[in-house]
Amino acid sequence: MPVRQLPETIVNRIAAGEVVERPASVVKELVENAIDAGASRIDIFSDGGGRRKIVIADDGSGMTQADLALAVDRHATSKLDDEDLLQIRTLGFRGEALPSIGAVARLTITTRHATEPHAWTLNVEGGDKSPIAPAALSQGTRVEVADLFFATPARLKFLKTDRTEAEAIREVVRRLAMARPEVAFTLAGEERAPVTWAAALPGAPGQLTRLGDILGADFRANAIEVRAEREGVIVEGFAASPSLTRANALGQYLFVNGRPVRDKLILGAVRAAYSDYLPRDRHPVVALFVTLDSREVDANVHPAKTEVRFRNAGLVRALIVHALKEGLAREGRRTAANSASSVISTFRPGSVPPGNWDWRSSPSYPVGGGAGFATPSFAEPPQAAFDVGGPSADVRHHEAAPDLLDRPLGAARTQIHETYIVSQTRDGLIVVDQHAAHERIVYERLKASLDANGVQRQILLIPDIVEMDEATVERLVARADELAKFGLVVESFGPGAVAVRETPSLLGKTDAASLLRDLAEHMAEWDEALPLERRLMHVAATMACHGSVRAGRVLKPEEMNALLREMESTPNSGQCNHGRPTYVELTLTDIEKLFGRR
To answer: What region holds the DNA mismatch repair protein S5 domain (predicted)?
Structure first.
């Protein structure tokens, strides 16, 4: 078949397919244009999941008649000062959004610039432009997109249900609203009740207000402000305390120079920063804003502008990890699951409907039904049915020094079920899980020992030879010096193999082949040797778990108070290294609410 030049209409539709993937893509492009136009209010409406109609109205600067004529031509843009594609200071810049939308839908643009006596309107249907005509509009721009993909019916078959497409639009608007708290957004449509996010004040307080409006009151209550700066790169934003987690990573948001992006970089960095706080199957909620020189990031690597590429990805990743770790360490005790409301709801009378509660379903009821357990009888003395014996340890009020009540975790009063320490503070009480608390203390000691003495190595009598493809071997050998810092000594053994001569002593007998392959995969993704460090920390966590005070051990009063004092001086004492809370707190006010005193 001979080579031939495709018609312009076909070329435009092929190009449109790269930018307009679904209705949410249209909303993203048009809202970004409105933000670049300086809008302070943006209204979004969709019908039929966006396939029947999308309307975006803003109060931005608008366009002149001449600008409107060029706006729907391919590769025409107002977003570049010159031909330098590295100097990108706007959200939309490719010059393909409007012509791409016009190539596959019925597009109507009505706009008014401050210098024009009235507004102008332009229609584009399947790539065919109509003459520009006068119109009525007070200010800004109104863009209407109808019958999306009518010019390319095959694309309609790949769209999902109206509800799914509407939810994708909602997610796009949510991300853009988080990136621009100073702009008011209204999202409406037949699929949903109207949602309005009012413009917020500038700075961190306004940013947190907008994030709380979108991510929920729980995020606002648990948010920890983070910030780090190095070599002209600034990372700031808010991270939820480890007590607020999700089952997936969809609650992690990254914004680069005000642009919402999805990047593997943030997943690895956040996972590394929270590795000491969360179970492996839980994910934190974070919103991070990265600001750097536009020449240090390439925003032109994806047609839909959803991905970026950093010139110094290692610096950005390290800064994210540092900012998150510093913030979590600063709010160490706050990161515990100390939500009084959740504790109160557990104890509140009436939280279980009367008549629906079976005492046999109580956690106190022994496993295995009634084996060896007699049902209380009214013929028995009342006290006998509820007699659970005395506490494991008892610390009378006069036996504790009064100044201990002023300490953050108070003075130990008793130990119950040989597992939990109850302490008293000036304005409440605290219940401590002795095993989880001591586990964190031992773990932090092990980490400090590793930092002070380095990772101990064990020399292999016979080196392990691990065969890999050449690219993987080159990747590992290039990072050999860095791996050696963590106790893993490797060297090239021909073009397709690596010789392992020393391994970390903490790992004991290990499968060198699987270790190296895992490391190589993580290096390809993150360009870091951190997974080995995390593996060492996992070993340290296991050692801490086995070396700490176990549940069921009776503690003396002085041992309980010593444990509380160690918790107060230990970083990250709000959780054990598996992510479980080490203590919960009830203030005197909370207790009075339980008994109706307030």
So the answer is: 211-329
